[in-house]
């Protein structure tokens, strides 16, 4: 489930992930600047005074009578207007959200090939993640509403913690103890997985399948050239897509994939999910986020100070500049919209 869904916040859309950075030196100035810019653009469309002009002190000017001469009306001239309201303006550029998502919703230039896989160099520093895809009863909030068919990616080293929290929530539903869901998911074991990497690093991911249906599982990161490593002849070092059979982990056969993050890779977020049984797994929470952090940055848990955190929030300390808080939000709305989660008494919650 998404960060929002875990806390019972109405889900919006899955497949989108974004990170928000809170820099302490910018309290309200950025917000006010954004509102002013929006008002200056939108107001002329509807004929309302903009904030820019309204904020300028008025100066008294003597009124002078001017004779008016009747002039024959001219035929109206059509002026092309874009979505921003400017006349004869060039097509709008992709939004910053599309930049952060990794894929732009525009046509690629003619003849441009797909982004190739980026094989890791021997000298690149390696960042390794060992992941397991789990079937998990996800408790959504402290009311103990839950999705018995939940799915999630977890660090293999933390599967035991995930199962312990799942058991604690099940016990709480029977009225025996407190739930394992904290207020605001403060370090909970059951939460969407967030991976981080620096430009120039080799991202090395091993994926293990612990799902019950036997169909297998994969990990496809949007806008990232992940390539399978060590697959069958002809399949290895090919993109980690569902059309590559070597990209699917199943049973006791894990899959390893790599991505050499370019030295000039921009900061941004990349949504990842499984292409195997995609609709069901995505619907029930099998997705996460990969974040490219600033060059040379370090990150830590804001509660414990432990480094290399993989939670939805972190303290990011760039090699240059001030440290800042990072928050990751994942929007979740996929699959069967008539599916009902259950309350603590295992009664179906009605749709509202």
Explain briefly what this protein structure is.
With 352 residues, the protein is of the alpha+beta class. The protein contains six helices and 15 strands.
Query: Sheet with the most strands?
Result: 5 strands, mixed
- Helical percentage: 10-25%
Radius of gyration: 26 Å
Query: Mean pLDDT score, rounded?
Result: 74
Arrangement of strands in the largest sheet: 5-2-7-10-9
User: What gap, in angstroms, lies between the N and C termini?
Assistant: 19 Å
Number of helices: 6
Q: Runs with pLDDT <50, length 5+?
A: 1-15, 23-91, 94-98, 100-106
How big a fraction of the residues is strand? 15-25%
Global structural class: alpha+beta
What string gives the helices and strands in order? HEHHHEEEEHEEEEEEHEEEE
Shape: globular
Number of strands: 15
Identify the notable features of this structure and list them briefly:
single chain, 352 residues, alpha+beta, 5-stranded mixed beta sheet, 4-stranded antiparallel beta sheet, 6 helices, 15 strands, 22% strand, globular, disordered N terminus
Description:
This protein is α+β, with helices and mostly antiparallel strands and 352 residues long. The protein is 15% helix and 22% strand. It contains 6 helices and 15 strands. The chain has helices at 3-6, 29-46, 51-54, 96-101, 159-173, 278-283, and strands at 16-22, 126-135, 138-139, 146-147, 151-155, 193-197, 202-210, 220-221, 227-229, 255-260, 268-273, 287-292, 298-300, 313-317, 324-331. The strands form 4 sheets. Strands 5-2-7-10-9 form a 5-stranded mixed β-sheet, with no helix packed on it. A hairpin with a 6-residue loop joins strand 14 (313-317) and strand 15. It is globular. The model is unreliable at 1-15, 23-91, 94-98 and 100-106 (pLDDT under 50).
